[in-house]
Write a structure and sequence with these properties.
about 325 residues; alpha/beta; five-stranded mixed beta sheet; 12 strands; globular; binds iron/sulfur cluster
Length: about 325
């Protein structure tokens, strides 16, 4: 049986469903060390007076091998698989362009987190991932480097190589049952406890996937995953769009494989493109009119005036505490073995 957070109270990263496998050291075992840009004291460099983002996600390959119902990939995947069958390779960012972006970040004295994935499974790019992490570490020697993976491509050897190349944090989202989780835990054994280098968390999403069984097409995933990704998924359709700010366009940058700067990590259909960081400098794109328009309109709480945001329920819960409260109640009522 997989250990639950209740049995592993060392730290609660994302309470309820995560277990912490390893940490670099006891003194840095805090959420802030993984996400410094979310901590109160974080001060990013400024571009013409406006703070630079604290996190950047860069899509190195445009594919994920799963099709979770609550994720737009569940319908996007079919065209991509069709293309692959016809011999069309998945779209990738070249190493040259990736390096260009990372060098640009170094020029800006960027101190935030780099995540070499966006709306894709990073280990679909496993043949290049160690190199990609190494390039990031070379030009950004102190920045946190984090990936979230569904774990299907993970091996002990690959994780060791990624950590040696500079990976500082990995969250493994497990969508399968205990048998699968046990296999994953076995692979993670060498990195358990204080491992000197990397935060490793294993997040069980099994309840989320099981919940869908026997449900109608009008899915309601409960509070596990309430976010409808800009209205692209039919998740919790009874939850109204909150007419309030969203920090994503002000605090994070999201780069597609071809260098396009996208609205956020739910823009799977690439509906809102602010600019292109291969053709232009990152800092020029970050403060351009398109970004500014989204930030200012969101700040006024006018999601209804913005493409994507007008259908997005992100932030519908008044606070993280409220969501967790709701989640605990929901779990009590819907306990599974
Ligand atoms: S939630 Fe993650 S693992 Fe699931 S389909 Fe989306 S990108 Fe893939
Ligand atoms: S409100 Fe807009 S920017 Fe924020 S997550 Fe939704 S679609 Fe993205």
């Amino acid at each position: 049986m997989v250990k639950t957070l209740e049995q592993n109270k060392h730290i609660e990263f994302y309470p309820i469903r995560d277990i912490l496998i390893g940490v670099p050291s006891e003194d840095v075992a805090t959420h802030d060390a993984v996400n410094p840009h979310l901590s109160l004291g974080y001060e990013p460099p400024k571009i013409e007076g406006f703070p630079l983002f604290g996190q950047i996600q860069i899509q190195t390959i445009e594919f994920c091998n799963l099709k979770c119902d609550f994720c737009p990939n569940h319908y996007m995947i079919w065209d991509r698989l069709e293309g692959k069958k016809k011999g069309i390779p998945y779209n990738i960012m070249s190493i040259e362009n990736y390096t260009k972006i990372v060098k640009n970040l170094a020029d800006l004295n960027f101190t935030g987190r780099v995540s070499p994935y966006l709306m894709n499974e990073p280990l679909m790019d496993k043949d290049r991932m160690v190199e990609i992490i190494g390039i990031t570490r070379k030009y950004l020697p102190k920045n946190p480097i984090k990936i979230n993976t569904n774990g299907t491509g993970l091996t002990t050897e690959l994780l060791g190589d990624m950590i040696d190349a500079g990976l500082t944090s990995i969250q493994i989202d497990d969508y399968f049952d205990d048998r699968y989780a046990t296999k994953l835990l076995k692979q993670l054994e060498p990195f358990q406890g204080v491992n000197g280098k990397c935060f490793i968390t294993l997040s069980s999403n099994y309840n989320v996937t099981q919940m869908k069984k026997g449900m109608s097409k009008d899915s309601h995933f409960g509070p596990f995953t309430f976010w409808n990704r800009g209205g692209l998924t039919n998740v919790n359709p009874d939850m109204p769009v909150p007419q309030k700010d969203c920090h994503f366009p002000s605090s994070q940058m999201y780069i597609k494989w071809n260098g396009d700067a996208l609205l956020c990590c739910c823009d799977w259909e690439y509906k809102v493109i602010h600019g292109n960081v291969i053709n232009e400098r990152i800092e020029d794109v970050w403060i351009n009119d398109s970004y500014t328009h989204y930030r200012e309109t969101l700040k006024k709480g006018q999601r209804d005036k913005l493409r994507m945001c007008r259908k997005c329920n992100k932030g519908a819960f008044p606070s993280e505490e409220k969501r967790l409260e709701h989640l605990r109640e929901w779990l009590k009522e819907n306990e599974t073995d």
